[in-house]
Amino acid sequence: MRRMRLSAAMVAAAVVSGTLALASPASADPTPAGTFRQLVGVGSDTTQDVVNALAGDTVNGISYSATAVKSSTGAGIASYDAIEPGTGSTASTITTRSGGPAFARPNGSGAGRTALSEALTGEKYLSSTGPVIKGQVDFARSSGGPSASGSTLTYVPFARDAVGVAVRGSGLNNLTVAQLRDIYIGHLTEINGQTLHPKLPQTDSGTRKFFLNAIGVANGDLAAGIPVVQENQGNAALTEDGAIVPFSVGSWIAQNNGISPDYTKTSVAAGGYLASVVLPGDTGATSPVTTVNGKLTPVGGYYENATFGRDVYNVVPSRAIDPTSVFFDKNLYDVFVTSGTHEAGLASDSSEAVISSFGFLNESYNGSVNQAKHAKVGGLEGTGIDKSLPAAPVLKSTLGDASVKLTWTAPADPALPVTDYRVTLTGSDGAVVAVKDLAASARTYTFSGLANGTYSASVSAANLVGSGTAAGWTGAVKYASTTKATTATTAYGVTPKVAVTVTGTHGVVPSGKVTVKDGTTVVGTGTLNSAGKVTVNVSNHLTVATHSLTVSYAGAAKLNASSATVSLKIAKATPAITKTAPASIAHTARAKVTVKVTATGTTPAGTVRIYEGTKLLATGTLSGGKVTVTLPKLAKGKHTLHAYFAGSTTVNARSGANFVIKST
Fold this sequence. Notes:
This protein is mainly beta and 664 residues long. The protein has 5 domains: 8-157 and 311-378, no CATH class; 162-249 and 264-293, Periplasmic binding protein-like II (D-Maltodextrin-Binding Protein, domain 2, 3-Layer(aba) Sandwich); 394-477, Immunoglobulins (Immunoglobulin-like), CATH 2.60.40; 481-571, SoxY domain (Immunoglobulin-like); 576-663, Immunoglobulins (Immunoglobulin-like). Helix content is 13%, strand content 35%. It is rod-shaped.
């Protein structure tokens, strides 16, 4: 809870009274040497000491173990200085994981953000010959905002600082922004008879970038030959009268109050100080600091000024603090993020007391990831990083029972491969119904338990740069229906019947149309009755064969379509044979026999033969189901004959009854 701002003087008094334990002088890679912790941070010189303290390490002889910030699972912070503790070397290396690679110590905000970016991408750090530091850094300390557009990184406000102007020489107080600009572009080389010696922090310094932006000077416009010094080290910068250098006010306070390691007090003894500045819109100058009980403390009006006041940040991967992401890191979230009722470990009362002791102001928005409340987002930083986004996946949908199943084909990987997919479902009113992040290996996801209605779904592939173009689907989600059908073997020519029953889930009785197809040909339709049933009469001209019929229900307002397949066997028809023949005939004449073949639903065609026993006497061909066959002359006597229908592709063969012709 943020109830008040604690001044640096108040905390300094606590140190004197023994509230904070004193230890042997030290500053601050994780101590003791060889200590590894879960949440690794690098970068800004400005905030390194206060973050070291919040990590529970010993800073300038003060132990902060009692106020170490940890996540709910006990994960702690490992904060590595911008320069090597003890030696001041800017060329040393660090190892942040047990067995991990040694890599160049990131010196400054920009270098910290680059290290974090390349720890995410797996690029070689700083150069093509550098080590791969994938997974070696979790957050970056930064005294400034993003240098690259994008949303990969979230800049979480940590505290309020200000940038002042450290000078040496009594005539350099009460500077204006215009004077500062002219000094650094080389147009103003003397003030009050004092020759000026402007200096700047190292290139990756967030303080340098912020200061030049505040006075309206681009790097390309700087006067030639301005010396570069390590940021926030007055002893190295304020070496002569007329020296001038931008400086973190918080760092100046902490060093001069004995809270941070001293890189400045020698220069103060020689006449160095933070100059008052005429803030834009003011007529008089404002000092960044004041003295309370012998200790320096911030001047709120200077810190809150839009030109020289600044938020300082802890930079984390955006996806790692998104509770819906497959990359969500609860430890990072617990330590850095305040959202709703969740308070960042770095925003607790004990943390804010420590932050204040280092010369910073605590703000109500510290820990917020809301961009309307000072949080910022930015892209990956570093050279040679391809920032192409993934293309849209190829998306298909399958409707189920109050559900929609999405299936997709992965897009071709850009230079930075796909890391995950985000699947989003929205209702007809545009409100988000559900969001799901899935691993890069995922190819399908089902939204289930949905109410009837129209929905839209999207699937987008993401890489470390961000989310690519989404593939979309829009359609109606309904309940499931089930179609069942039965048939019986049917003779050719008889109308086949398909008995259909459609059932619905969720108590919905199906209504509507049923269609029966043989292949692609519609052979019958019907409308369901109030019980969801119908018997469909199918075409009686199906060939003699076993047919696989598709029975389709078209669906209704609340029900999805469904279908079934059913086998229908069409058998050959059974014929009936009748004949007309004379009872007797002269042996010199030839008898004529008329044969008629009938079958239900069809007119048989084919050959009719007349036999006497097994002897074939004559043959005829049906026409319209009839044929008159002329017999040969018969010898005198009685002749027992029968007609035989030879059958066809649709009608079975059959013998007729015997009949007798008497030849006289």
